[in-house]
Every structure is written in structure tokens, then in C-alpha cells.
Amino acid sequence: MPEDATGVDGRVADAFNDVVHLNERMARELERLSKAVGKQGKLNQRAFLGDVEGAWAASIGFVNDLIEDLVHPTTETARVIGAVAKGDLSQLMALESDGRPLEGEFLRTAKTVNTMVNQLSTFASEVTRV
Q: How far is CA 79 from CA 72, 91, 100, 110, 114, in A?
């Protein structure tokens, strides 16, 4: 909207332009985050818009919570598989995260990894016994 308007029209135009500007910043930040986390595997990256408040700050918080909720099972899976690769068959995936039980695909994956580790442990015990 025009930036040279005055009075009520000017205030409305300024408010609208501020929202458009914040929306553009949000889009650029989400694009950056998509590349960093989703494509480049930089799992420590989080969204940041600077000094925003209200729904803008809440939206950034929700995006960061989502990333954390997706990253945790990935790093936990990598931890257990890394232990198995080193011969440590005592490590299992937790079936909860931050005090909440895993659900859905996260729970299915954790149970599958734990079953795999338990089966490998059983096979290793049998081979050792024989």
C-alpha cells in the first residue's frame, strides 16, 4: 500500500505494510530452515525472526517445537544404531520423549529398532554359546 498516505488511511497502510513485511521475513526464514534442516541435515538450526511478538512469536515457537519433535527420534535412532555398530547391544530407544510416550510412526520406529537390537543380542548370545 502507499507509504505516503496520512491520517487513518496512512495508519492502515502502515499496519498492512508491516504485516506484509513480517510475512515476507517469515517466508524467507522458513525457506532457509527448510534448506538447512530438511536438505542439509543441520539438525541444530531453529527459526528466528528477531524481536517479534504475538502470533508471529508463537508461530516461530511452533516451528521450532516441530523441528525438535522431529529431530529427537532421528538422533535417538542414530544413537542406538551407532551403539550397535560398535558392538554395544545394550542400548535401546526410549519409548517416551520429554516425559510423554511416543506415538504413531515414532513409536513404531522405536519398537522396530528395539526389536532389531534384541534379536541381534539373542543371535550374538547363541553364536557365543555355540
A: 10, 8, 19, 12, 12
